[in-house]
Input
Amino acid sequence: MKNTINLIQTWDSTHITTALAELKTDKALENNIITRYESLLKAIGGKTLKSLVDLPKKWEKLNNEKKAAVIKTFPADAVFFTNILDLNAKLRVDAWRDSHYSHQIPNSLSGISNLKNVTELHVENQQWETLPVEIGEMENLEVLNVSCNKLRELPDFILKLKKLRVLNLKQNYSLKTIPDISQLTNLEIVDLVYTDVKMLSEGFFNLKNIREINTAQSDLDKDTAIMRRLIKTFPNAEIYTNARKAIELEDNADEDEFLNKEKIDISEYNLNYLPENLFRANAVKYLKIRCWNLKELSDNFDALQTLETLNLDIGSDVATIPSSIFRLKNLKELTIKGSGINSLPDNMEGLENLEELELEHLQIKALPDSFKQLKNLRSFKIKYGTFDIFDAISGLTSLEKIELEDYHTPFIIAAPLTKLTNLRELRIRANQKITDDIFHLPKSIKKLKIRDDTRRDKETKLSLGKVLNHFNQASELDFEHIDFSDISEPISPNNCLNTLGLDYAKMTELPDSFSNLTNLTYFRMFACSLEKLNSVLYNCHNLQNIRLSNAKFQSIPKGISKLQNLEHIGFECSDIETLPDDILDMKNLEKISLENCPLYKNKDFKTLIKKKIKGIKIMKGWYD
Output
């Protein structure tokens, strides 16, 4: 019996065929062997011992669920038929770009510890949060690839794999720690790409056989001190890191590196500390620092008194802005982006020539009192702010431009902004309702863009005529998610407005007085609610661009040829089936955008209009 089993467990088809021939003369032995392999036969869908012939080839055709069943039932005293066990799941992406997995194996691999001869185990894309404990018993394992899972930690039983040479942990995005793997003295390759591992044990640096380490895009890669030590400790190893340039910058001691340069751009993701020689720049006027892993900012900025523009984009680790920045007397433009910043020093009055200030993602609770001393400030932009600005800016009468995007503080217009008599541009993406206080804004505004982001309740409702008449000196008016269905107040004659956007406006028709917008060149309505297109629009003779997406009407009235300046018209995602015949008389028309519109499929229309209007393009999207 032993000899027959040995022949079968070579997993060689010729040897198995020989063993089966011998069994034909000994039914009792055949039954005993069938009993031995009964579970294995069931796992591969076989009914007789003949099913074991070419088992390695059949194995490759099994899905991972059946492979797991084979592993579970494989005889503990048998040699597995392959040394490289590949149980990778397939990562697929469907038409909606929604990642999903197929052919996964159970989270437990019962029986895998019996496969003593397996030297490589590959289990990618399993979405495992923990490793099956059985892996720790695979005493001959040399390669362990558990990349693209959801591991949160690497269990200590991994230390039992004394023969391990390759440990691949990449794309386990939640993996934050690994144990002291210095006991794995045979380790040659460690891959930590796209993990959250922040520290390595002291013992890691004692591994003598390391020849490759990959830390790119990991949290380790963001720490130049650790990466500097890895490079020094393993001089003969291939270390794949994005931190080399950052290390070179930090360690650069060349005093002349930045001398006589008027423009300096330090955009290095992995940089932890600004190079000291930067603050010996004697002629710099423009300085951009885009380093999301800085640990701190030096307080030596006042050495750069030639600076006129400073752009800081510094990630989340820096909590305070050095006061030396606010002693730059020649600074005209200042941008500060950093989600870790929770305070600003109260010496902003030192920026006596500052004209433009942009703050993004700051976690400050209020602007310092010294902000009110920025008497030359002309432009102020806040993105993702939660602090009140209105009282602080009320005395800054030089302000010409205010831009608030995703601004979360209650939006109160009346008192503070009415004092800004020089205000020319106001852009707001508000999370508070826009009320009639909008009519307290200065009539001198030239550009106004307001988006109401409070759509979970009823949208802001305003009179279209009243808004247009109040801002009758504006050249650009752009509104989003404001209900302009009230068109009872007539629009007064207006020869200033060039651009008008009324997205999600809930207007079912254009008022007759719309024709008083005599200088309108661009008109846009996303999510158009018009039930028909009023021919009054054709009286706006200067129109060059009309864009009405999601329109529900199927045709537009004749007379469009009055718009002889029209260059581009768009009806994306609309029900338009026909256009009036006189559109063929519009010799300046360059593009018609008809994405997801019935007319786009009309070949006769395309042929005719291309014949009549030389060079015209029938496009899908507006920007095609």
